[in-house]
Amino acid sequence: MAGFRSLARQVRDPRCDLALRRYSLRKCLERFAPYGHRATWDHLCSRHGFGPEDRSPDPARLEAALTEVEEARDLWLAHEARFAARRRREKHDGLRRPAGVDTWQRRTGSGYALAWCDNPRLHPSLPLAEVLRRLLDALDREPGTDCPVCATPHLAWGEGPEPHCVHCGISVPRELLTPRALTQVATPLLAA
Q: Is residue 171 helix, strand or coil?
């Protein structure tokens, strides 16, 4: 099975036909998809101007989409390296049990669904790296009451175990919200 970097080379390889280059970009999302596969694909298509079903998109647009994914992935890999180094130090100092904020890190260790979007058509319009940067910055602050990506206070319970932002669509990690904020998250109305 090809890794992320191998697939990225295929996306950029002008000798490959467009269908393979597009397919390789989609396969990259199996290794790193911050919103989940479908929502991340929809995000890339809308930001870079090619259709989700377009079998022969402009190669420059595919490469721009890949660059956006790579920037976010590089940010995530750097975060993972810092996290691993910190945990080694903590273990060396006798702290075997990770802190509460590290729960999110353990759930998302692979880089998949870091900012899960229940609805694949509702996701942030910001570049992936900026969304990830805002999430990671929020991990270094005290818990708050708003979405760490778009700063809206409008959160609701969705299908998953974490509340989602009504405005930008991401699932907000519980660790980033105060206990009071969690109790005030809107409960969606059930259809009668």
A: strand
- The DSSP call for residue 187 is P
Residue 122 to residue 161: CA distance in whole angstroms: 18
Question: Would you say 90 and 141 are in contact if contact means Cβ atoms under 8 Å apart?
Answer: no
109 Cβ partners below 8 Å, 6+ apart? 80
Residue 45: both structure tokens together: 């298509």
> Cα separation of 34 and 28, whole Å?
12
The percentage of residues in the chain with a pLDDT greater than 70, rounded to a whole number, is 94
DSSP letter, residue 99: P
CB atoms within 10 A of CB 141: 10
E-only strand ranges, the chain? 155-157, 163-165
Question: Which residue in the block uniquely carries the two structure tokens 């009504």?
Answer: 166
- Distance in angstroms (rounded) separating the CA atoms of residues 44 and 137: 23
Running DSSP on this structure, what letter comes out for residue 48? Answer: H
C-alpha 29/C-alpha 60 separation (Å) is 18
Mean pLDDT for 64-74 is 97
What pTM value is reported for the model? Answer: 0.89
**Once rounded to an integer, what is the mean pLDDT over residues 107-113?**
74
